[in-house]
Design a protein that fits this description.
The protein has about 350 residues and is an alpha/beta fold. About 30% of the residues lie in helices and about 25% in strands. The strands form six sheets. Strands 10-9-6-11-16-13-17 form a seven-stranded mixed β-sheet, sandwiched between helices. Strands 1-2-3 form a three-stranded mixed β-sheet. Helix 7 links the parallel strand 9 and strand 10. The longest helix has 12 residues.
Length: about 350
């Protein structure tokens, strides 16, 4: 690897957590390395390090040095790096010389990441009943879940991602153009294991779960039909179980550059602070959750309610609800037409 490519994986001590997250997203390998003034390896930071830092009360505006691992694993040769990499589930192994100066990175050879995925084997509930008005006029012809992204509809992309974790039991809530949905899967060569639940009237993003009362006896994934998450589902489920949550909401950090200078005023119009084109970061609900079946029992029959409102209601009852943060790069949303094209490019590349 040449020095220019290596720079994509190197952070600096003055970077904030938010800036590190953006650079990690750009190199797509989930890790940055930190060097001292002599290019000696001093630490690294991964998606997981950032998540643990944020969950412990850290802020994305804090310096990333507060979250780094000061004892990174490294090797002195490609042979040693290969042995270390394949003995455990590492992302990248840095290769250093005898003075601990970073000289290269080892990414593995012909590794199929899906083979490393754990078998979770829990049900998946997909809310596919909405009209998809933000995707009009496409949804005048097809229900939103059947709008193609590349070769297959969005809902199949979602289902295949769950299948890679051996989550093969699907429960799909339908309403708008539901017969088209059922006909598509009846003719599908993949023969998905699907149970259907018909809404007689629109029940929002959460109310349709009541149709599953008595059908689920354990923890399940609950997802909207227009978002795709490329993250470690095993880590999310472990977090949910370890914290004994009734609902875990997966949220992604979204970063926005304000294109203007921002001024904060004080008493009598005095200038308290000025920032030129600041970066703003927010946690955004991806519409993907892990849920305990007791939540279904708290929904009234025929109650029209959004699932975020259900989350708030469970919180008010004193039950444990929590957020699992992921990188912005992990989340793809096709809820609007421009985002639909971005998702296609991310999945298939520019050429199609």
């Amino acid at each position: 690897m040449n020095r220019q490519d290596l720079q994509k994986f190197i952070g600096t001590e003055n970077m904030t957590v938010s800036e590190v997250m953006q650079k990690i997203d750009l190199n797509t390998n989930g890790i940055l390395f930190f060097l001292d003034g002599n290019n000696r390896l001093t630490g690294c930071i991964t998606d997981g390090d950032i998540r643990r830092f944020l969950l412990s009360g850290g802020r994305i505006s804090d310096l990333a040095t507060n979250a780094i691992n000061n004892k990174p694993k490294f090797a002195h040769s490609f042979a040693e790096a290969k042995e270390i990499f394949h003995n455990r589930d590492f992302v990248v192994i840095p290769i250093v010389d005898r003075n601990c100066i970073l000289v290269d990175l080892y990414f593995g050879e012909n590794i199929d990441n899906k083979k490393k995925r754990s078998s979770l084997n829990i049900p998946v509930v997909i809310n596919a009943g909405g009209k998809g008005t933000r995707l009009d006029p496409y949804t005048r012809v097809l229900p939103k879940p059947l709008i193609p992204v590349g070769d297959i509809p969005i809902i199949e992309h979602i289902m295949k991602e769950y299948q890679s974790y051996n989550c093969c039991e699907f429960h799909i809530i339908v309403n708008y153009k539901k017969e088209l949905m059922k006909a598509y899967f009846a003719d599908n060569d993949n023969k998905y294991h699907v149970s259907w639940y018909d809404e007689d009237k629109p029940l929002g993003t959460g109310g349709g779960l009541k149709l599953l009362r008595g059908r689920l006896n354990g923890t399940f994934f609950f997802a909207n039909c227009d978002t795709l998450l490329i993250a470690n589902y095993g880590d999310i489920l472990k977090f949910h179980k370890d914290n004994r949550n009734v609902i875990t909401m997966v949220c992604a950090y979204k970063n926005f550059n304000i294109p203007y200078g921002v001024v904060e005023i004080g008493v009598n119009g005095s200038i308290k602070e000025m920032k030129e084109k600041p970066l703003m970061s927010f946690l955004t609900n991806t519409g993907i959750y892990i849920v305990e079946p007791e939540v279904i029992n708290d929904i009234d029959d025929n109650e029209e309610i959004g699932f975020p409102d259900i989350v708030e209601r469970e919180k008010q009852k004193g039950k444990r609800v929590a957020v699992f943060p992921v990188s912005e790069n992990c989340w793809m949303d096709m809820g609007q037409i421009p985002e639909l094209e971005k998702m296609r490019i991310k999945l298939y590349g520019e050429g199609l």
